[in-house]
Here is the input.
Amino acid sequence: MSEDRLQRLETEYFALRGKLEAGRITRAEFDAALKTLMAQDAQGRYWTINAENGQWLVYDGKQWVAGQPSAAPAAPPPGPAAAQPAAAPAQKGGGCGPGCLIGCVVLVVLCIVAGGAAFWAYQTKAITLNTALNLVGLGPARVEIVNFRDDQVDVTLKQTNVATNTVAFEDALRLSAFDIKAFHLDNAGTYLLNITPTGKSTSLGSCKLTVRGGDQYQFVLTPEKIVVNRENEPPKAGKDLVLETSSWCR
Here is the structure.
């Protein structure tokens, strides 16, 4: 299995595990989502992740057994050729005739319906103010920390670019094993995140984040590494999923 594919599946697993521990999804939803975390390697073997401990499992033809994927995944079969779009008909002159008038009326009606639907959604709390702001990149941001280590850790987050007459954001969290906590940020900007074991000075990792309105970052701490995920805009490269190599942490 390729490194990118491996890291993507591991990150999805830890993100799901974090949501389960935080009560954001049920066990049934977790199990259903976990069934989609499966890949096939070049030898045709199927791989998945153990729901309880996050370890890799391979199907040996009779049962799932522990293993460690290493082979490159099989290339997906070529899809059908995309149909070429038909050429658009040439436009004819003529100005605003009856057809144009009907189009304008339809557009006005659609705008009224859309506005009414948006108002109803806001009134019934189907859409909150933060949700609406997030859609246009102006809402509050969130940086979630999930500690899957066996020890306690301290996490600090400090804003590094501060406008004149503005107080910089600075906060700290302490997480025990399997804790999930989060920083809530009202202002976009650059922030420095640092993670250390409680009572020790050696850092487990640091990340200089550029946070935009509505960003939803998640840092999953495992005994081997720190996985980074931006839920509102998933990574396009596997290296971005690991703190040490992630382009989000530069």
Observations:
- Helices lie at 3-21, 27-34, 98-123, 129-135.
- DSSP finds four helices and twelve strands in the chain.
